[in-house]
Write a structure and sequence with these properties.
Helices cover about 30% and strands about 25% of the residues. The chain is α/β, with parallel strands linked by helices. The two termini are about 35 Å apart.
């Protein structure tokens, strides 16, 4: 778990690997928000669109089309970088993630996916847009990866955000412990809950995780009256089935605290990220048309599901 505490620090000194801070986000909760993406995830979704969020540690990313074979990285770190015969190869097994090679790569072929930040540093960045939050009803959304894999850091972010008068939201797949979710409740205004598959066997095949654990977390949060938006990735050939759409509708009807559902259509942005990180190629699926997504939403609504207003 990429999480380090400074016992003498306090005041937001706890650190974790952050792979993105997205300002002016309008799709991660109400109003204008800042989404903070934490590294580390216990799921292995076959359609993952944020592969840089899986590993809890910072990772070296390489864009071949930007490399001019200048040799700066190889001179600095020959254990990792090698340029021979007009080809730049990386021995990632020797990479410590220090990021020094990135500093000398002026064409921008090398970058780090993730950097360690303290909770205080993150909140200071988030607070730059305080006026937007106040005027739009927005705030902070902690996402990932899976924020519950960096639980102490997530707890500290939410606490600091509330101290600064912000609305807070957490995106989670429900893989955290119930006692951990309970600790977050005083500083948590909204949960974006990832509902990935209705059938338990398919859920395990698609994510490598136990659906029962996820649903127990959902039931716990709903039982505490936490407002929830059900976020449902839909991937053609995997979970674009009537049975799954029936499940989405049933869950929104079962729990009054669920404000509605959102269908998140599959896209292929994760493919290029996987290549830049040197990871094995993953599965590729069909990108649905706007008409198909509209039909999906209509099916869930017709089955009694409450769509997010």
């Amino acid at each position: 778990m990429a999480e380090h505490a400074n016992p003498e620090g306090g005041g937001g000194a706890l650190k974790a690997a952050v792979f993105g801070i997205q300002h002016y986000s309008i799709h991660d909760g109400p109003g204008i928000r800042t989404a903070v993406f934490l590294k580390g995830c216990s799921l292995r979704c076959v359609w993952c669109h944020n592969p840089e969020g899986i590993d809890p540690l910072p990772q070296l990313a390489y864009m071949e089309n930007r490399c001019i074979l200048c040799g700066g990285c190889a001179a600095l770190c020959p254990e990792v970088h090698r340029i021979e015969g007009g080809v730049h190869t990386l021995n990632r097994a020797n990479c410590t993630g220090c990021g020094k090679c990135v500093d000398v790569c002026w064409p921008g072929a090398l970058s780090m996916a993730g950097r360690y930040m303290s909770a205080g540093e993150v909140i200071a960045d988030v607070m730059r847009d305080k006026a937007y939050y106040e005027n739009s009803g927005g705030g902070l959304t902690v996402t990932g990866g899976e924020p519950m894999c960096s639980f102490a850091f997530t707890r500290e972010l939410l606490r600091l955000a509330k101290q600064n008068g912000m609305h807070t939201a957490l995106e989670t797949s429900g893989c955290g412990g119930l006692s951990e979710y309970a600790e977050l409740l005083p500083d948590l205004d909204l949960v974006l809950f990832d509902y990935k598959e209705t059938d338990p066997q398919k859920y395990a095949r698609f994510t490598g995780a136990d659906r029962n654990r996820s649903m127990a977390a959902l039931a716990f949060l709903c039982g505490k009256g936490v407002p929830i938006i059900l976020r449902c990735p839909v991937i053609p050939g995997c979970n674009d089935t009537r049975e799954h759409f029936e499940g989405i509708a049933a869950v929104t009807k079962q729990y009054p605290s669920i404000l509605g559902f959102e269908l998140l259509a599959y896209h292929r942005l994760g493919i290029s990220k996987t290549k830049r990180l040197g990871l094995p190629d993953g599965a590729v699926f069909e990108v649905p048309s706007e008409e198909t997504v509209k039909r999906w939403n209509g099916m869930v609504t017709d089955l009694g599901g409450r769509r997010r207003a």
